[in-house]
Specification:
Layout lengths: L2 H9 L5 H10 L6 H28 L6 H22 L4 H25 L6 H12 L2 H4 L3 H20 L7 H4 L5 H23 L4 H4 L4 H17 L10 H16 L7 H29 E4 L2 E4 L4 H26 L2 H22 L3 H41 L1
Antiparallel strand pairs: 1-2
Length: about 400
């Protein structure tokens, strides 16, 4: 909220001058946030230039510096970053978050410097696990809106390294070499992403300390639907799966239902859970159908496809379009513009897939474009209806609060 917004509400008669003054004082709108942000940016730029200069000076004299001095300076910088965070967290929380973020970076620098000084040849998974273990709890102990994203990304990298790396006691392939960890990782990545998304949705209404972490939810949802779209109509490799794989996929909807956000009703939440949980099974199902449609074998002899090839490609796009409609419906019922926007983006993805992969002849292309145009007209009407309903609800909520 800006000071201009408060003045407009006062001019419209929605609030009294006393209420306007109280809101301005409560949110500190008279402090000149534009100037404060400019000062923060200038300080950050100056700090970056100083750090870059120090790095260049150290690089120029790297071999002349004793190893003990190198390691001691790195640990001192790590300590100074967190001391600065402790001193600034009450008065300047934004500066404190930047210092905490730099402290996490210095932790990575200390690990890399230690390995370089002593010429360690440990596998990458061991060094990354040490770094991840040092930062994973920091956003939950102290408020770190920048670092929470680093922790989320590193959790996916850590999972992939544990499943794919070799030659380390931390590698699952080395501990259980007989297990095909590729198929388990394919199901574990969406499970981890669903866990982070559900937590971010709960943080949205969990108080001021956790509300800053809710920005993870739309980003994760965007990445998830983009990955599903890229796999939906492109041929991909899927390893043979077993009961453990399907067990992992079955845990995802149960996990999302248990972590339901208090700010969303059950019906739209269940619809979003369906979209998130069925993306990967739908991808694999469509891939199997496409393989069956291309050709099939009987008694050792291969035969031509039973249906045209374009039908197999179109099936994945139809499934993805149904997911998009369900996402838009969920956003409309929950009054969540971010879900509506994600669903609209999924529709655009499906349209791109039609143009790039399906349009083979003028007859079929014309039919597809007509049907797609009608669907988009209906979707535009649904989006406009949802937007008006959302705006009306927000105005009614503001009027009730004012009274």
């Amino acid at each position: 909220m800006k000071r201009k917004d408060v003045e407009q509400m006062q001019a419209a008669g929605l609030i009294t001058p006393e209420q306007a003054a109280a809101i301005t004082e409560h949110f500190r709108l008279q402090d000149g946030r534009g100037w404060r942000w400019l000062l923060i940016c200038l300080c950050a730029l100056a700090g970056g230039l100083i750090v870059a200069g120090i790095i260049m000076l150290i690089s120029a004299n790297w071999y002349d510096i004793p190893p003990v001095v190198k390691m001691g300076c790195a640990m001192l910088l790590l300590l100074l970053c967190w001391l600065g965070w402790a001193m600034q967290r009450a008065q300047r929380p934004m500066v404190a978050e930047v210092l905490g973020f730099c402290g996490a970076g210095m932790w990575l620098g200390c690990i890399a410097l230690y390995g370089q000084i002593f010429q360690l040849q440990n596998p990458f998974v061991e060094g990354f696990t040490l770094f991840f273990a040092g930062i994973v709890f920091l956003p939950f102990i102290c408020r770190q809106r920048l670092l929470i994203w680093v922790v989320a990304v590193c959790s996916f990298v850590e999972l992939a390294l544990l499943c794919c790396s070799r030659g380390s006691y931390l590698s699952l392939r080395s501990v259980w070499p007989a297990v095909d960890w590729d198929e388990y990782m394919i199901a574990a990545l969406p499970l981890l992403g669903g866990l982070w998304w559900a937590l971010a949705e709960r943080w949205r209404v969990a108080g001021e300390r956790w509300a800053g972490y809710s920005w993870l939810a739309p980003v994760l949802l965007l990445v998830g639907v983009s990955a599903a779209q890229s796999m939906m109509y492109v041929h991909g490799y899927f390893p043979e799966v077993d009961v453990v794989f399907w067990g992992e996929l079955a845990v995802l909807p149960l996990l999302l239902l248990c972590l339901k956000s208090r700010g969303v009703a059950w019906l739209p939440w269940c619809c979003v859970v369906i979209v998130i949980s069925l993306c990967l099974p739908a991808v694999m199902g469509v891939a199997c159908v496409r393989e069956m449609m291309c050709d099939f074998s009987l008694n050792g002899e291969r035969y031509a496809a039973l249906v045209p090839e374009w039908a197999g490609r179109l099936s994945g796009i139809v499934v993805y379009m149904l997911f998009a409609l369900l996402m838009i419906y969920s956003g409309w019922r929950a009054l969540r513009l971010s879900w509506i926007n994600i669903g609209s983006l999924m529709v655009i993805y499906a349209a791109i897939a039609l143009v790039a992969d399906v349009l083979d002849s003028y007859t079929f292309s014309g039919l597809v474009l007509v049907v797609t145009g009608l669907l988009m007209l209906g979707m535009g009407w649904l989006l406009e209806k949802g937007r008006r309903h959302l705006v009306k609800s927000v105005k009614e909520a503001q009027s009730t609060t004012t009274l």
